[in-house]
UniProtKB/TrEMBL annotation:
Protein's recorded name: Phosphatase PAP2 family protein
CDD domains the record matches: PAP2_like
Transmembrane segments: 35-55, 62-80, 115-144, 156-174
GO terms assigned for molecular function: hydrolase activity
This protein's UniProt keywords: Cell membrane, Hydrolase, Membrane, Transmembrane, Transmembrane helix
């Protein structure tokens, strides 16, 4: 078992270093520093709430579902962060490139990635054509978390799973 864990950790660290150090570019520094906020609490709550309050038809329903999924998804995130307190990569890996005001709470799982996936799925379910924009956008937010030195790939992967599960459940039950 320990060999498997070591192998996984080694490959995850290699993937992290590739994204965080090898693909560095001035344009990407600015792009990822801004796009990452789409997964933050302010953006996800405001977008969902505006659609729920001011949208009509499918857009309103998707906004309500997004708010519910966002709320539900952060229950397991809070529990997991307390139960498995994983330090952020920039605190563990000395060569990590990080940017202004790095977070200091635990990294596992990624709350930003969870949040963005919890809100985009209801909109994609309501209007599938939006998936062409929203799914890549959500993946880019997850990638930004690694690029900015704040999360390991597994943090983001688990965030994708939690956010997607919460939103699919919400869409199925409140559809």
């Amino acid at each position: 078992m320990s060999r498997v864990v070591n192998w996984l950790q080694h490959h995850e660290t290699r993937m992290f270093h590739f994204v965080n150090q090898r693909i560095q570019h001035f344009f990407l520094d600015h792009f990822f520093s801004r796009i990452t906020h789409l997964g933050g609490a302010t953006a996800t709550i405001v977008i969902s709430l505006c659609c729920a309050l001011f949208g009509q038809g499918a857009l309103r329903t998707a906004g309500i579902q997004a708010l519910i999924a966002l709320t539900i998804s952060h229950i397991p995130v809070a529990i997991i962060k307390k139960k498995y307190p994983r330090l952020r990569p920039y605190l563990v890996l000395p060569q990590t490139i990080t940017y202004k005001n790095p977070l200091t709470d635990h990294s596992f799982p990624s709350g930003h990635t969870t949040a963005i996936f919890s809100i985009v799925i209801p909109f994609m379910a309501a209007m599938p054509v939006l998936g062409l924009i929203l799914l890549p956008l959500a993946l880019i937010v997850g990638l930004s978390r690694i690029y900015l030195g704040l999360h390991y790939p597994s943090d983001c992967f688990v965030g994708i799973l939690i956010g997607t599960a919460a939103s699919l459940t919400t869409v199925a039950l409140w559809g």
